[in-house]
Amino acid sequence: MENNENITKPVEQEYDATQIQVLEGLEAVRKRPGMYIGSTGERGLHHLVYEIVDNAIDEALAGYCDHIEVDILDGDVIRVRDNGRGIPVGIQEKMGIPAVTVVFTVLHAGGKFGGSGYKVSGGLHGVGSSVVNALSTWLEVEVRKDGKTHYQKFEYGVPVDDLKVIGDAEDSGTTVTFKPDPEIFTDTVRYDYDILLTRLREQAFLNAGIKITITDCREDGDKDDNGNNRQDVLHYEGGIKSYCEFLLEKKRADRLHDDVIYINGKQDDAIAEIALLYNTGYDTNIISFANNIHTVDGGTHESAFKTAMTRVINAYARKFKMLKDNDSNFKGEDVQEGMIAVISVKLTDAQFEGQTKAKLGNTYIGTLVNSAIGNVLTDFLEANPSVAKTIVDKIMSASTAREKAQKARELERSKSGLSRVRMPDKLADCISKDATRTEIYIVEGDSAGGSAIKGRDSNYQAILPLWGKMLNVEKARIDKVYGNEKLTPVVIALGTGIGENFDISKLRYDKIIIMADADVDGAHIRTLLMTFFFRYMPEIISEGHLYLAQPPLFEVKKGKHKRYAFNEAERDMYSAELGGNVTIQRYKGLGEMDAEQLWETTMDPAFRTILKVTMEDAEKADGVFSMLMGDDVEPRRKFIEDNAQYVQNLDI
Ligand code: TTJ
């Protein structure tokens, strides 16, 4: 008796644990279905079919099955049947239940939307059978194996009975039938024949030799021209080469060469295959797959393909003097005109990136594709000179047409004065285009920039915030900032161009006002900008367009009375005027003022003071700048110490 208990107890425990795990898993899937199938809309609904079909495709890739049938039945029930070995029905040791029951009830790690990659083939592919089951009102599985037919039914993912033998079997294979749960797929449970057809056809192309039959058996389903149920048999011995042919058929263009070009490469566990067909059309059709998953957003395989194609074609055209020494290289867009290409890579550790996980990230795949194109395509072109010539001629005419169109556009633009550049994203431009009246405030920092944008007169005042936060002098030397791309927004906003191209007649504002804090960083930014204008756009200064804003240093307040003081003398004067006993706030930065205060004190043309920068001022700034850039530490320290004085009078 005791012995007996010892044997049965662990088994029961195991079974309980399995039960709990299964129920928790199902609950998780039904709670957040989007996590497992991407969406609960039409896409998710169709995705259920792919999850099931993927398993049968794996069996086919393993070499045990050559026909998969997909039927859409009345009530939008889906039936998928294969002629493989049948899912194993024996007791799975770990779980203590039949393997087929495990397949449909235990949530497998590494699903498409859950994370880690796919195996190229052999089992890990359609890990979503249990997900499909959990999201179905009911699901039935029938396994024909070793002369017997095994059957089990589930509702909402839970077995309604044990796996049972229900009869004999002539052949072997697996049939899965399921009805998606309308409580999950609240948008629609209606299957679209064409959506399924497109995806199944794609899989048939990607897995050469597999036959997939799709039939619309619904009474209210799609009918063919004779009024019969629609049916398509998808079977392509040519694989991705057939895919190119299929894509060509849909175009109103002719092929440029008889045979689809096929390129492949291998490295360790990874393989890359490319099929290429040029046509007389002008558009480009490049589609890429990783582990049979359509990488809609491309990735390393697709980018490597494009750059390698351009490189190889250019090298070939140069070598055989189709491109002369003076001709410029073909561009990617030239090489891609009229191109149909299917890229399919398989790898064991696919990294899918981006929002939709539809972009391949593995860099070594790029290298593999690149070398495959480099070797195989180069050889092909040299071995097939007439095909090569036809293709290069086509690319040549694309290139010529592109250059012509470009010239025409430029001419058109210069005629209509439309050669407008895109303004910097950070620029809050003013409404008026009257360059005799408009002003641009170059503001230090995003927060002060925000107040300035709120407080300004948007008719005539534009705001350009510079740098999120000015770099501390001690942390980063000014020369790191100077001369780099951080000043391009200024140049673009002004519209004048720079250096040799400088044209003051294009200046978009009458006043350029530098507005920076009354501290060392502010002093820095003023020095930097003044030096910049002095060296690269001196006319801005000599023509009197450059100004320094003068934010107040103090707020003197008593009761309702408030005055802003711009220096210490004013501060003392106001506090005396108000009869002493005043509250004095010292403004350390523009950011301490709200939009209204900034407008009142510093930006309102009726009340503000702005200082016009002279050439002498700028020249001095240039000297300070050189000093700051120099190796001598002492003057730099002194500059930092003296900056309060620097701020108050322009005498630098
Ligand atoms: C697994 O390894 C041992 C032999 O059988 C393999 C297997 O599971 N094969 C298999 C699974 N063939 N077909 C399927 C399958 C088919 C459909 C339609 C649905 C599912 C979930 C699996």
Explain the overall architecture.
It is a single chain. The chain has 652 residues and is of the alpha+beta class. The chain folds into 4 domains: 17-235, Histidine kinase-like ATPase, C-terminal domain (Heat Shock Protein 90, 2-Layer Sandwich), CATH 3.30.565.10; 240-404, 2-Layer Sandwich (Ribosomal Protein S5, domain 2); 423-551 and 592-648, Rossmann fold, CATH 3.40.50.670; 554-586. The protein is built from 20 helices and 26 strands. Strands 1, 2, 5, 6, 7, 8, 9, 10 and 11 form a 9-stranded mixed sheet that branches. The chain has a 5-stranded mixed sheet with strand order 12-13-16-14-15, with helices on both faces. The protein has a 5-stranded mixed sheet with strand order 20-19-21-22-26, sandwiched between helices. Helix 3 packs parallel to helix 6, helix 8 (300-319) packs parallel to helix 10 and helix 15 (520-536) crosses helix 19 (615-629). The structure holds ligand TTJ. Residues 52, 55-56, 59, 80, 82, 84-85, 87-88, 103, 129, 174, 176 line the site of ligand TTJ.
